[in-house]
Amino acid sequence: MTTQTHNTPIVMADAVIAQVIQLKDPDEAISSAIWWRVAELVRACTTATASGPHLTTTLLEHAFTATDDVLSSLSADSDPTADLVTADPRIADPRHPASELDALAPLDAALPLGAGYDALAATRRSCLRVARLLFSLDRTTPAMLATRVNQLRRALAAWRFEALDARISTAH
Fold this sequence. Notes:
Layout: H1 8-23, H2 32-50, H3 53-77, H4 89-92, H5 119-135, H6 142-171
Helix pairs in contact: 1-2, 2-3, 2-5, 3-6, 5-6
C-alpha cells in the first residue's frame, strides 16, 4: 500500500484558485499575489467558522492575521488613483458625490451587536462576499476589495467578542 505525500484536497483547491486567478483580467489593478493572499484569507475564515469551540480562538487569530496581510499588501501594491479610472466620467472625478466610494458602507460604522445578532453567521456572510470577489471574473477595484476585507475584519471582531463573552459567562 502506498501513502500519499500530499494533501489532495488542498492541492486541488490551489489548482482551482490558480486557474481563477489566471482567468482574471490582466489589466486589473489587483495583482495575482494579492489574490493569493485573499484565497488564504478565505481559507482561514472558512476554517475558523467551521471549527469547534476549542480551536476558535487560535483560528480567529489566524483569520485576523490574514485580513491584515491582505490590507497591508493592498496599500503597498496599489496606486490610489487607479480606483478612480472608470468609463463613467462622473465617477472619474474624486470630488464628484457620485463616486463609487460614496456608495460603500463606512468602515467605522457601528457593529450591530446585541440581542438577535449572530456574529458567526455575519462572519460567514462577510467571508462569502470576499470569496465572490476572488472567484469573480469581473474587475475588482482595490477600494472594493479593501472594503470587503475590512467588513470581514469587523465581523471577525464581533464574533471574537461574542465568543470571548460566552467563554467568560460559562466560567462564572
